[in-house]
Amino acid sequence: MPKPGFYAVRIGRRPGIYMTWAECEAQVKGFPKASYKKFPDRKAAETFAGVCSSDRSIIQNEAINNIEIPRQTSNSYITSEFGPKPSTSMSIEEEFESIPDLIFDSIDRKAKPYYAVHRGAKPGVYRTWTECEKQIKNMGNASYRKFDNEEQALEYVRTGGIVKATRRELKEIIYTNRVVQKRKRNSNDELEYTIENPHEPVVIFTDGASAQNGRKIARAGIGIYWGPNHPLNASKRLPGRQTNNRAEIQAAVYALNQAKQIGARKVKLYTDSQFLIHAITDWIKKWKTNGWKLVNGDPVVNKDDFLELEAVSKGLDVEWIYVKAHARNHGNEEADRLAVAGARLLLEPSNCSTFPKPQLGPETVEPFILTHTSSSNEDMAQLIIPEERVERKTFYAVHKGKNPGVYKTWTECEEQIKDFVKPWFKKFCDENEASDFVKYGKVTKKIKIPDPGPDKFVTVFTDGASSCNGQEQAEAGIGVYWGPGNELNTSMRLPGRQTNNRAEIFAAVHALRQAKQLGIKDLRVFTDSKFVINGITSWIDKWKENNWTSASGKPVVNKEDFMALDSARQGINVDWCYVKGHNNNPGNVEADKLAVAGCKKKVSDTFIIA
């Protein structure tokens, strides 16, 4: 038999105190965002529900006491009294109906919102719009948002503008996605559905997957999860370029198309892709302003996908929520399972999305909008990985031929080399490079130095990897990432001992030596190795004083490696920055890919710049 107690309903059909679970359940079951709790004593229950004994808004069993609650009118407060019904045979629901709604007006009024400012004069959480407005006024890159919950507002300020789903939220999530099947016009028509309550937000989990991502044999799929056994759950193959980023975007496109089709107005979309959330809520505004160029001048690769997502989002109130991947969350795991299954499907029309592509009008620069997210690190450039080269003009350079020179078509070039003994010619995408080839007969390509940030620092990401680390068959590689499509990007095998720590160190060594050759004086190195940062900024001085012995008296294992790193940093102002590994940071992800690929390459004695 359950212990006696007081059931306090703060948000429900009829807020108040109830003596049985059945009475409490009648007020909260199916009610959006219901708030209730059981207490051993009445006082605690009254505090939680926001009532007191003097209010006498306490319901016990099937009787209702006299209730006197002030009700606010347009100018003043009035007081109304209502007595209990003489009959005691009425059900609790009937007694509720007998009480006018006005006695609950003061309780039902919405709580004061929280205004979170991530980027502004003074980031923080504010309780009034006036205070918030002061922090963002005349701030061109302000980032702020309104919340009903203080915890989410604080999380928004802390995490760079991305709203993260809390563990409690994911544990108690309710899929309010009830749909009603429409009548089919004939037996050949597909099943269609309409949402039961268009005023309630629908909850959707989306995910993208790509087996062998980045390779020609990659297979990508999308997964959309509406809830257990929901008819709208989808597992589809991705047409076009088979990349993970495209799959994440197109999964969201498909989900929002579904939401529009069933008549939904509000969408809570959960995704494990911070790249997707940052891009659609923040970066896309800057890309449009810059003519769809990244900060380093390269074109945005997924332009068409984001334009499609933006077009589909119009007319919907979408709340983008980040959920950590592979963290035993039911919704995310189901979406991932559906995406993986979609990647295994054949690339046929029946296995792909059948939603029509939206008609995209002429591009215009949109004004700044109220709510958006941004990177939590202002120094970190937006790094979107190019997955295909943009079509460029072609130049044919003839060094040895009938008439050496630069030609714009293959037909013109062919006339100069046909029947010519040992012709010397080459195709280029840059006219200056083609002209140099005509003069010198060899490629004289200039390496592009990454653009520095506002503080004059150039950014680079480094990483090391070692498969079977610590074992005899271990294979280690290094990855150095300077930006999308940069020729300085490095993926090479590590010579010598195949350990992860050595790979992390020598990835940084290689980046520093590259910087020296290019004349870079200020370099910001992002690495996910605290061992490297602590070693080169703190421990190395103590090791030198102790004749390269550790605090335990043992020789420093990576002495030669740290000596090489110490030598490489001389003459460069290095800002060492830690970035959490495997956390969807674009630069770190690409450096990791390069390092992993380097593990499989052959050992070369010349892989580190001397």
From TrEMBL:
Name of the protein: Ribonuclease H
The keyword Magnesium is annotated on this UniProt entry: yes
Organism listed in the record: Caerostris darwini
GO molecular function, one term: metal ion binding
Keyword Glycoprotein: no
Entry's family note: Belongs to the RNase H family.
Xref: InterPro entries: Ribosomal_bL9/RNase_H1_N, RNase_H, RNase_H1_N, RNase_H1_N_sf, RNaseH-like_sf, RNaseH_domain, RNaseH_sf
Biological process annotations from GO: DNA replication, removal of RNA primer
Job description of the protein: Endonuclease that specifically degrades the RNA of RNA-DNA hybrids.
EC number in record: 3.1.26.4
Pfam families found in the cross-reference section: Cauli_VI (PF01693), RNase_H (PF00075)
